[in-house]
Each structure stands twice: as structure tokens, then as C-alpha cells.
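Table S2 (continued). Query chain:
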Amino acid sequence: MSSGRIQTVLGTISPKDAGITLTHEHVCMQFYCALTPAPPHMKDKASGDLSFKMGNLGLIRQYPYANLENLKLFEEKEAVLSEMKYFKENGGATIVENTTIGIDRDMKFMQELSRKTGVNIVSGTGYYVGASQQASVASMTIEQMSEVMMSDLTQGADGTDIKCGVIGEIGCTWPLEASEIKCLQGAAAIQEAIGCPVIIHPGRNPKAPFEILRIVQEAGGDVSKTVMSHLDRSIHDYGELEEFAKMGSYCEYDLFGLEASHYQKNLAIDMPSDAERINRIKHLIKQGYEDKIVIAHDIHTKHRLMKFGGHGYSHILESIVPKMLARGYTQQQVDKILIHNPREWLTYNCS
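Corresponding output:
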């Protein structure tokens, strides 16, 4: 185990106390930048004004970003509180909360949530995709972005003394925007200086994760302390997946629970099922990468909460782990993915 500690919203903890960890979740955010019309053939059935009710749950699952109400996770604090208690009861211990600048993180709520549930929460700093940002962000220099992120890590974020424990999720589109590249470079510089963990949201193209890691490496970042999110919807070819894994970052499968047959943000992508996610991870394990795999749900919309008929934050513990074990994973491999790998990534000499 690496020396150092893990920075949570309630202070630092020993790595041994991190326990079962989901490395990519959200508990309070808005996702207005993702609002996307449903396909033309659905125009009479689904729109941004589609009422958010159980009778429309099937449509919302297929087109989650066509419903504005669905993008207001911040309205469901009581439901999230209930689910975090349930996550704790199911053996969960820590979540990494990936809400960054642009999609409205709430540091005080994260701290309150952690106090009330006993779940460790590691908050992220950095900037989400360019489309989510105010115009002033585009004109910021690398140094200015770095200053904001470093302050969040060492002093406290958003006018509080609550410190972030990870940089990310850094939002990237495809092709990369200039401000997104600057954020990657700024994060790499901080990582080189203090050794902190970084997590990245890649653009929706199989080339994106490769290009991002090259930028991070060239800027002095530590790929071995970096998580590449959303591989579920980014790299589908097993050969390409192996080539990416060779670059040395953590490979994250973080859309567990999403069983839609396609991906609304890019209809050319056939979204894998949970069964296929399990198979892809098993392939990486067979190739020798079990030390570089982490998983999560990336809950960021209302419809995925149990309150609205969704799978919730305990889906991996309740449904996926038993399936992994039934499909040939060892308990040691499951523990590496859920306990050992996340704590190794999150641990550094934080103040």
C-alpha cells in the first residue's frame, strides 16, 4: 500500500479505512449541458417537456437526456441521503464524487451527507466540458486553472474549508476544446508537484482516451495515478482496449446499471450491457491488468435513483458482484477492483 492518506470532505483518512469504494459517482449536480432532443422518430413521444413520471420511465431510460427534469439531480437530496445509508448497510464505505466546476458541485451537502451516513466522500476539483462553462473559463490560462485546482485541494473549495481529494472528473469532448486541453495540462502540473489522483471524462470517440493520456504525459502528469472513465462507451474493440491498458492508467467501467441498447449522446454507439461490462473487465484481468481496474455507476440523473425505479448506488454490491463471482472472478479479484485499486489510486501525501 502506498504511503500517505486519502482526503475526504471530513478530513483525511487512512487508506485502510477506505473499504469498498465506487470511483465515479455524483450526489448533487445539474446536467443541463447534456440536454439532447430525442431522435426524430420519437418526436411525438419524447421531448424536453416529457413529464417525469413512472409511466414514462421506459422512454426516459432510453432517452435520459431528452428530459430536462431528469437532469436535476440536485433536487433529490433526501433520496440520495436514503440511498447512501443503504449503500453503507450493504458494505459500501467510500465514493468519489466527480462533480466539478460547470455542473454545480455542493461541498456543504457532501459534508453533511458524509456525517449523516458514515460514507467517506472524496470530492473532485477541475473543470467539466467546455459546453458547461461560463465564457470566462475559455480565456483562463493554464496557470490560472492550476491555481483554482490547487486551492481546492489544499485550502478548500467554493468558499469553504472543505478540501477536494482528487482532480476530476476533467471534462473532455471530441475533438478536444482549447480550454479542456489547458485543464488537462494544469492538472498534470499539479499531479507532478504533489502526486494527487486525477480522473478524466473522455470524449465519445475511441481515439479520445489515447489522445488525452498523451497530453497528460507530455505535460508531466503521472498516468499511473490517473483514471480514464467511461471506457464502457469509448473503446469497444478488445484489441484497442488492450493497447489502451498498456499505457498504464486505471481503466474505469462506471456505467453499471445502464442497460439501454444504445447511447443517446452518440447513437452510433451500441451501449454494452452489464453482462458485457463484466466480460470486458474479465478480459483485461486475463491480460494481466487486474491491478488497474476500477468500477462505479456514474449516477447523474434522477431516473437511476431507486426512488424512481432505478438501480441505485448499491447495484454493484447487490447485483454485479454476485454475477462476477458466478462468472469466474475470484473474491481476491473483486476485492482488488473494489477496495485495493481505488485506495492505491486515491492515496497521496495530502495536507
